[in-house]
Specification:
The protein contains 13 helices and no strands. Helix 6 runs parallel beside helix 10 and helix 8 packs across helix 13. With 300 residues, the protein is mainly α.
């Protein structure tokens, strides 16, 4: 039986996640510097590009039909991103809580069509909550580098408090999904095992790059009805802009260790880009990925 692109992608992710689970259980953790190189490389090369397709959503949803309209869209996009950076700088605890909550909501959209809101919440939250069950110390270290220990410690404690109930809810979701579709149940189980066993950074990178990003790209192609070559061309300018802003961000970050600066740059940038990205994408997701009847052309 031939699998659809989305189902094939779910199967490939499950195989990768289960392989990473086995390695995480049998092998010693990687050195932090090596893990950082691997995780950041995966996220930058395979994860970040899916957000560069946002112009396809803006074209369809906002009816942008002039250069002035596109410049206004870009300015608003950058303004929303800048507000997230300001929040991180001045209110780190609020930033961290908001980033985690928004991530849960955003990742919940990766579950297959037809799932209830509570099922999506359990699925998306597993990526954020379950690492606190067996990797609380490492999670606290990462969050402390990002927002300081005073903000990280209570957040990790809260995640630990809900981790066991969340795991139980995920197991129930696996059983319930297995009665309807074995492949979907496998995918959910793979998410749970990956986030339980892999280190928080590596588990997040694998999920983000093997599930979230490719599933979004496949859905975007179906939604926009454009060829892969066209999608790649659309993504070029946003990716270049992200590269330039990242270099500037690295320059203006306060002096610290290389790992800490990389963590801040990577995750603050992800958080900043997620807000305007969600403003566009969530509208499409809640419509069932239904394309409006008329779309304006992209500017030359």
């Amino acid at each position: 039986m031939t699998l659809s692109p989305l189902r094939l992608q779910g199967f490939i992710f499950s195989a990768l996640a289960l392989t990473a689970t086995v390695f995480s259980v049998l092998l010693a953790p990687m050195a932090p510097s090596h893990e950082w190189l691997l995780a950041s490389g995966l996220i930058v090369l395979l994860g970040v590009p899916h957000g560069a397709l946002d112009p396809l959503f803006a074209q369809t949803l906002l009816r942008l039909n002039s250069r002035a309209a596109w410049l206004g869209f870009v300015a608003l996009y950058l303004l929303l991103a800048a507000l997230v950076v300001v929040l991180w700088w001045h209110l780190p605890l609020v930033f961290l809580i908001t980033f985690l909550a928004v991530s849960i909501l955003h990742f919940s959209g990766d579950l297959v069509a037809g799932a209830t809101f509570s099922e999506r919440l359990v699925y998306g939250g597993a990526v954020i909550v379950l690492p606190a069950l067996w990797h609380a110390e490492e999670l606290t270290r990462l969050f402390s580098q990002l927002v300081g220990a005073s903000a990280a410690v209570p957040v990790v404690a809260a995640l630990q408090l809900v981790a066991w109930p969340w795991l139980l809810a995920l197991l129930l979701l696996v059983v319930r999904s297995g009665r309807r579709d074995g492949l979907h149940a496998l995918e959910i189980m793979a998410v749970g095992l990956l986030t339980l066993t892999a280190t928080p950074l590596l588990g997040f990178a694998i999920y983000f790059c093997a599930m979230h990003s490719p599933r979004h790209i496949l859905r975007t192609q179906q939604y926009a009805g454009v060829a892969p070559r066209r999608m790649a061309l659309v993504a070029v300018l946003p990716l270049l802009a992200v590269l330039v802003l990242s270099v500037l961000g690295w320059y203006f970050l306060p002096p610290s260790s290389t790992d800490e600066r990389m963590l801040k740059l990577l995750f603050v940038a992800l958080a900043a880009l997620t807000l305007p990205h969600m403003v566009l994408v969530e509208r499409v997701r809640f419509s069932g990925w239904q394309r409006p009847a008329v779309a304006s052309p992209m500017p030359p």
